[in-house]
Task: structure prediction
Amino acid sequence: MPARFSPALLLALCACQTALPGDIYFDAHGQAADAPVKGGYYRKILKAHARQQYTVQDFYSDGRAYGTSKRLTHQQLETFRPQP
Result:
């Protein structure tokens, strides 16, 4: 007999299989940009999780890591606040 999975588990597995959004760019003040900005930042999405959550890593425009990876909701992906 085939194994049965709960609908919630199947939905979570499907959500994690979706394509990841591309890099998200920000200017030096944390405003979203359409393309890389010199002196700005970018956010790389490393992994998608259930319930529209993502593990992300932020970088300076020159490629150096800005902080450590973190988990964000879909609504938080395009919000960036640079720290002095």
